[in-house]
Amino acid sequence: MSGNGTSCHPERSEGPLKPQERSLAALGMTRRRTVLSGALAITVVPLSTASATPDAMAAVVKEVTGGAAVREARVKLDIPPLVENGNAVPLTVSVESPMTEADHVKAIHVFNEKNPQPHVFDARLRPLNGKAEIATRIKLNDSQRVLAIAELSTGEFVSGSADVIVTLAACVEDPS
Amino acid sequence: MSNVLINAPKTAKSGELIELKALIMHPMETGFRPGTNGRIIPRNIIQRFVATWNGEEIFSMAFSPAIAANPFVSFFVVARQSGTVELHWTGDEGFDVKEQVAIAVG
């Protein structure tokens, strides 16, 4: 880990900013919501472009599904509801599927609402996987909803989601 | 440069569902974090993970910066014939690591 106690987000970082810069960043934080001020953009640029919102998540979901309807069924997310350390959150996604040639899961996409980017991962599966279940560890920047969408061989999309409370956001503190 | 841990059964019955687990050492630097000098540390992540069995792709996954450091992946596959499972990670800054495990199916 190369972290040093700094944050993903400039406005939260303590070390590298001088006091006046910090107040600038804080100012940028409040204004950013209404106007993207060019003068303040120096400190807030990475922020203004890099913050996933539920809307941004909806947009990438649409990109993946092509606007097709997503039914909430068959997808289960196994993730702790309360997470102390957002840097490594165990996540298991499983989809109920016979995994036969005629009916299998082709892909599993996972999204989040509040990390800088809405994507988490996209996995491709085949009937020979036998079981549509993937486990990994993810970063979560804030308390939020994690969404998984599975693309079935029948052309259908099914989804599942889980709400997670994060006490220590990813990147705010070095876990080591 | 990189350290890989793979957990796979050495032997399996034909048609048996087996779980493959792999962990690779990698910082998965998001590209959103400022370093000590206040400048953003450039993104350095693994972008893609592909598993093949005797050359046939069995699983693949595209990573994003939201995958935790030292990415861990576990997935299932039905054992069909003896052979070599190759795991291949590629990513930023020319990251390219391949590891193989042999699985005997009988």
End-to-end distance of chain B, in Å?
35 Å
Number of helices of chain B: 0
Q: Overall pLDDT of chain A, averaged?
A: 78
The CATH architecture of chain B can be given as Sandwich
* CA-based shape of chain A: globular
Poorly predicted regions of chain A: 1-7, 10-15, 30-50
Helix content percent band of chain A: 10-25%
Distance between the termini of chain A: 7 Å
* The CATH homology group name of chain A: SoxY domain
Q: How is the biggest beta sheet of chain A arranged?
A: 6 strands, mixed
CATH architecture of chain A: Sandwich
Which homologous superfamily in CATH is the superfamily of chain B? Immunoglobulins
Strand line-up of the largest beta sheet of chain B? 2-8-7-4-5
Total count of strands of chain A:
9
Count of strand segments of chain B: 8
| CATH classification class of chain B | Mainly Beta
Number of helices of chain A: 3
